[in-house]
Amino acid sequence: MTSRNGVAGDHDDGKGNDEHSDKVAIPRHLGLFGCIWHLVGLIIGTGIFISPTGVLRGAGGSVGLSFILWIVCAIIQTCGALSMAELAVIMKKSGGDFTFILQAWGPLMAFIRLWVLEMIIVPSGGAVMIMTISSYLLTPFFQCEETPVVSLRLLGVFFLLFIVVINCISVRLASKLAGVLSITKIVGLVIIIITGLHNLTKGKTEHFDDSFDVASYDISLLPTGLLSGLWAYSGWSVVTSISEEVKNPARNIPLSIVISMSMITMVYLMANVAYFTLLSPTQILTSTAVAADYSVQALGISWSWLIWLFVAMSALGSFNSSIFRSSRVKFSSAREGHLPEILSMVSISRNTPLPAILSCVLLLVYLIEDDIIALVEYLGFIDVVFESVTIAIVPYYRWKYPDIPRPYKVPLVIAFLYMAALVFIAVMALYAHPVRNSIALLTAFIAIPVYYAMVHPKYKLKCIRPISVKTTRFLQKLFYCVRQEKKTF
């Protein structure tokens, strides 16, 4: 059993030993490379192809300062990932931030985090990925005219259903797809890097002259640069959200983070060098798709479609890992009673959290909205606030539960560094946009009345229970699923 302080029992050593393989449960199927594929698959999405504009804007147009911001954001996110890895290893349950906050700060705070993450940020971010895939695949066919919105959405629906079906069929198949798409996106970035190195050999270095020359710098721009860079490196929570599916998590989770973040940082820096060999700071600041603008100049119109294709595959890989993570968070939260019971069930024939995966189809609603990116930016501040709340659990648990077995233990200075960075970014963002971010916080707190009406055991509406039971039993028969028959944590 797992107690309220997050200490798990000794029935599972976390190394993939499976004494009752005939019982219905999500298997431990991810080794070190599986974790790396999911990390690379989710982190390298659309960020490196779009974020350079935001990072450069936050650097005041300074090329040199923009590279410093990229490195700083990599350090911040790596510190966060390694700190969260300790919580994942201690608590052993999947669910990521939701599980950590539930164990440490209680069900109400966990529900607010779940509300913001799974009801707004994840689906709207997924819609951005879906529309990016459609846009990059269709734009080459509509060079002289605007791409029809209907075509973009229809193609988006196709890819959404494709990824959902893959994840429903097999957890291993979804992980293999993550590996294949991770390789394709790395190939796309390698093409950008090689062409950039070729440009350097031809003397295309004029945009690196006076790299740190900034006439005047507005400090209020810094949150824009940091949030853009952090977004490009975000996604590492995929491995801290699926700890029940990782073999030997105490080793594979932190090691995969170190390997993946080191590799991604190097690739990002080299890709930015390539961009600046052909694009001036002014061109990047006014660009809505830096990789697309670069590919046209580097490869010409006849071959630029290669980069467009790889960007689309990159977004598809991120979307696959995003669905993988999101379904596990829903599965874990439903298991704790924070979402409908049906989402906590596992397919008898497939051993996948099929209802939780199918619930991701609701993302279709977000495809109706044209300006989804504005929603993501609007709520990015809330994400930073709740990350601060989550990371505070690390020092809190060190103080309150010093004797908990910690197979992996992050140095406290790393956790404090990440916490300080998040608090700084939150304060600066609130200073730069006080009204917008205050409204965003109020949006998060809408979850409070929803929690008491739908979740709280004492105050939730009594009329919901009979309807919920009948609906659950019907869907259980329809999807041929049951609650997991053994503990995997």
Automatic annotation (TrEMBL):
Coiled coil: none annotated. GO terms for biological process: amino acid transmembrane transport; L-glutamate transmembrane transport; regulation of programmed cell death. It comes from the Eukaryota. It is a multi-pass membrane protein. The keyword Transmembrane applies. It is found in: Cell projection, Microvillus membrane. InterPro entries: AA/rel_permease1, AminoAcid_Transporter. It catalyses: N-acetyl-L-cysteine(out) + L-glutamate(in) = N-acetyl-L-cysteine(in) + L-glutamate(out); L-cystine(out) + L-glutamate(in) = L-cystine(in) + L-glutamate(out); an L-alpha-amino acid(in) + L-kynurenine(out) = an L-alpha-amino acid(out) + L-kynurenine(in). One of its GO terms (molecular function) is L-amino acid transmembrane transporter activity. The chain crosses the membrane at residues 30-55, 67-90, 111-138, 150-170, 177-200, 220-243, 255-278, 298-321, 342-366, 378-398, 410-432, 438-455. GO terms for cellular component: microvillus membrane. Keywords: Amino-acid transport, Cell membrane, Cell projection, Disulfide bond, Membrane, Phosphoprotein, Transmembrane, Transmembrane helix, Transport. Gene3D superfamilies: Amino acid/polyamine transporter I (1.20.1740.10). Its main location: membrane. The keyword Membrane applies. Disulfide-linked heterodimer with the amino acid transport protein SLC3A2/4F2hc; this interaction mediates cell membrane localization. Belongs to the amino acid-polyamine-organocation (APC) superfamily. L-type amino acid transporter (LAT) (TC 2.A.3.8) family. This is Cystine/glutamate transporter.
